[in-house]
Specification:
The chain is an all-alpha fold and 438 residues long. The chain has one domain. The protein is 80% helix and 0% strand. It has helices at 2-7, 19-33, 44-72, 76-80, 84-92, 94-112, 114-117, 119-153, 158-192, 197-225, 233-255, 260-265, 267-290, 295-321, 332-354, 364-394, 399-428. Helix 14 (295-321) runs antiparallel to helix 17. Residues 1-19 have a biased composition (Polar residues). Pfam families: MgtE. It is a multi-pass membrane protein.
């Protein structure tokens, strides 16, 4: 800004400059001062290091979440109320719908210089926005889980329904509150450390999101499970409190200039993503009951794919907002992300084996088929990401608000489906060691 201010000084005694020229120069300078800062050049090595480190952190968070899922699947609440499995992809998908979208949106604001001058307004508006969305989507996810669990059996249990709704609403609210505040801190810290937030923010949101959300869901559902058959008062209070919170937070977000557009545009992607993730939950419910070893790998394959496509979408969106030249589908970032799939997956699946988690040994044929599924998932996601982000921009939509929910939900659906196919193929060809399918 010092350079701009120095350039705005006009000569006091300029006989050769008429009034019209002075006015035109002033208008040009004011316009230039409102332009976003020029984007810094970022070489592939720097971007690669930043992304890989953030992927490692995110991956270990997902490994921890996978180990947790492998543990809690044996809890009474998961055994008695199997519809809780349907909630897992939908609620874990909220990190893509809300926290990762928040990270992408704030990363763009950081590149545009808004973090420095409007931090308080950004915090208030975005925290209210994600709280409003989280509670409502959590409620809808529970309704979908209830319907999907009721339709096949034709039996409706009010206590199970109240458990699912209360657990989902409370988990979504608490997780979004904690993760939203962390995301704001990550973006601000990244900017001060001269790190591109597009490369690190969304994976960190994912790493903390999976573990935090799954832990909260398991704990809350387990506590509420103890009240089944005796009282529905506590679940009712939780649900009513959440539904009261929605319009209050929604009003505050609507009155905030930084979140009004996101509030208008964000509902269709968030709800659509929840439906897609719930479909993935049905697949997970089926595959877990047939292959016990699949649970520990499901969060890893979905998480890595979701992280990579979120980084890709976030970088593309920032490029569009800052006026940078768009790359082709097979851009340098796309190739870099595809290369990272193999080492990332190998590190995490061997970490799972080292910790003796799950029910599946890492035979060569297992690694080959698993890696094929992971590579296919990421390739499809990155290709879809390019066309989706560019298409939204041409339609006048902000990709920061709309793209990532669809992409991470598709990542969950593709990852769960491809992993299920991989285990089915392994079982069919006889590569079922003493643990596979146990």
């Amino acid at each position: 800004m010092n350079r701009i201010k120095n350039n705005t000084r006009m000569p006091r005694n300029s006989g050769s400059t008429n009034e019209t020229d002075v006015h035109a120069d002033a208008c040009r300078l004011i316009a230039n001062s409102n332009k976003p800062p020029e984007p810094k050049y970022e070489n592939s090595w720097t971007a690669g290091v930043q992304m890989f480190v953030s992927f490692l952190l995110a991956g270990y968070g997902m490994v921890a979440a996978s180990l947790l899922l492998d543990k809690v699947q044996h809890w009474d609440v998961f055994q008695v109320v199997s519809e809780v499995y349907i909630l897992v992809p939908a609620l874990l998908g909220l990190k893509g719908n809300l926290e990762m979208t928040l990270a992408s949106r704030l990363s763009t604001h950081a590149h545009l210089g808004h973090i420095d001058s409007n931090l308080s307004a950004l915090i208030v508006g975005n925290m209210c926005l994600i709280q409003c969305q989280a509670v409502l989507v959590g409620f809808l996810a529970a309704m979908a889980a209830v319907a999907m669990g009721w339709i096949p059996d034709g039996q409706f249990d009010i206590h199970h329904a109240m458990l699912l709704c209360a657990s989902s609403v409370l988990t979504a609210s608490f997780a979004s509150l904690v993760l939203g505040l962390i995301m704001i801190g990550v973006i601000v810290l990244s900017k001060h450390m001269d790190i591109n937030p597009d490369n690190v923010a969304t994976p960190i949101a994912a790493s903390l999101g999976d573990l935090t959300t799954l832990a909260l869901l398991s704990w809350i559902a387990s506590l509420l499970h103890r009240t089944i058959g005796s009282s529905i008062i506590l679940p009712s209070i939780i649900i009513i409190g959440g539904l009261v919170l929605v319009p209050v937070c929604g009003y505050i977000a609507y009155e905030n200039k930084f979140t009004r557009q996101a509030l208008d545009e964000g509902w269709v992607p968030v709800v659509s993503a929840m439906v897609i993730s719930s479909a993935g939950g049905l697949i997970l419910d089926y595959t877990v009951s047939n292959y016990s070893g699949i649970a520990v790998f499901q969060l890893v394959i979905n998480g890595i794919g979701g992280n990579m496509v979120a980084v890709h979408a976030s970088r593309l969106s920032t490029s569009l907002h800052t006026g940078q030249k768009m790359d082709s589908v097979l851009s340098g970032t796309t190739k870099l992300l595809m290369v990272m799939v193999i080492p990332s997956q190998l590190i995490f699946i061997h970490t799972i084996e080292y910790l003796k988690a799950g029910h599946t040994s890492l035979t060569p044929i297992f690694i080959l088929i698993y890696m094929s599924a992971a590579l296919l998932q990421v390739f499809l996601l990155l290709t879809i990401s390019h066309y989706m982000v560019v298409g939204m921009w041409k339609l006048g939509m902000d990709p920061d608000n709309s793209a990532i929910p669809y992409l991470t939900a598709l990542g969950d659906l593709l990852g769960t489906a491809l992993l299920g196919i991989a285990f089915h193929v392994l079982y069919a060809i006889g590569d079922k060691d003493s643990d596979l399918g146990d």
